[in-house]
């Protein structure tokens, strides 16, 4: 008989950016739905999974989260970038330096043989801190355009943004099809 394979496909998304921009909180918001009361600096590599359904197929989205500025050993970095399906670059809208450092993160990503065909998005996080914004939307938009990325501005903290955060990851996962 023609049994269909029930092997669940895994979609690996990596989250990259400076320390403290909210990578862990965004990952939690997507995989667990909540904003953690307290996060500890991620040590090495951590990943969280979420089962989703896309066009009737159940797939597993695996979000890899990492420590920002702490540099890994070479073997660890290679493991992180291996077989990636999509990349999420994160900066903090209240910290210009975290936006400027994106160049370095993009270089690191390209240096690890992540194919240009792998979809990438740019996420400006902490939009709830309205009075502290340092990175204007149009500046971010120009940068995103220049690097062929979609821009999302959001807040991992604001529960009203939950759907928006989910759509960032789902928009990437849909491209697996
Ligand atoms: P990571 O180092 O990039 O993983 O950053 P974390 O997710 O650990 O978050 C760093 C700090 O920023 C923590 O104190 C979070 O509570 C805070 N944070 C994360 N996302 C937001 C957000 O959207 N808004 C605000 N106001 N704070 C946030
Ligand atoms: Mg973290």
From TrEMBL:
Record-level Gene Ontology MF annotations: G protein activity; GTP binding; GTPase activity
Predominant localisation class: membrane
Membrane topology category: Lipid-anchor
E.C. code: 3.6.5.2
Cofactor: Mg(2+)
Localisation: Endomembrane system
UniProt entry keywords in alphabetical sequence: GTP-binding, Hydrolase, Lipoprotein, Membrane, Methylation, Nucleotide-binding, Prenylation
Reactions mediated catalytically: GTP + H2O = GDP + phosphate + H(+)
BP-aspect Gene Ontology terms: autophagosome assembly; central nervous system projection neuron axonogenesis; commissural neuron axon guidance; Rab protein signal transduction
One GO cellular component term noted in the UniProt record for this chain: Golgi apparatus
Enzyme class: hydrolase
Family: Belongs to the small GTPase superfamily. Rab family.
Protein name: small monomeric GTPase
Organism annotation: Lepisosteus oculatus
């Amino acid at each position: 008989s023609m049994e269909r394979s029930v092997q669940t496909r895994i979609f690996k998304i990596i989250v990259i950016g400076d320390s403290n921009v909210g990578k862990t909180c965004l990952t939690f918001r997507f995989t667990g739905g909540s904003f953690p009361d307290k996060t500890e600096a991620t040590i090495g590599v951590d990943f969280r999974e979420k089962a989703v359904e896309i066009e009737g197929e159940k797939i597993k989205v695996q979000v890899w989260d990492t420590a920002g500025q702490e540099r890994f050993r070479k073997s660890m970095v290679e493991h992180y970038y291996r077989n990636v399906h999509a990349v999420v670059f994160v900066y903090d809208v209240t910290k210009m330096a975290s936006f400027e450092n994106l160049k370095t993160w993009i270089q690191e990503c390209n240096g690890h043989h992540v194919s240009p065909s792998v979809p990438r998005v740019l996420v400006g996080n902490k939009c709830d801190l309205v009075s502290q914004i340092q990175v204007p939307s149009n500046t971010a938009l120009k940068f995103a355009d220049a690097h062929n990325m979609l821009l999302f501005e959001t807040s991992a903290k604001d529960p009203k943004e939950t759907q928006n955060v989910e759509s960032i990851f789902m928009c990437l996962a849909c491209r697996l099809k």
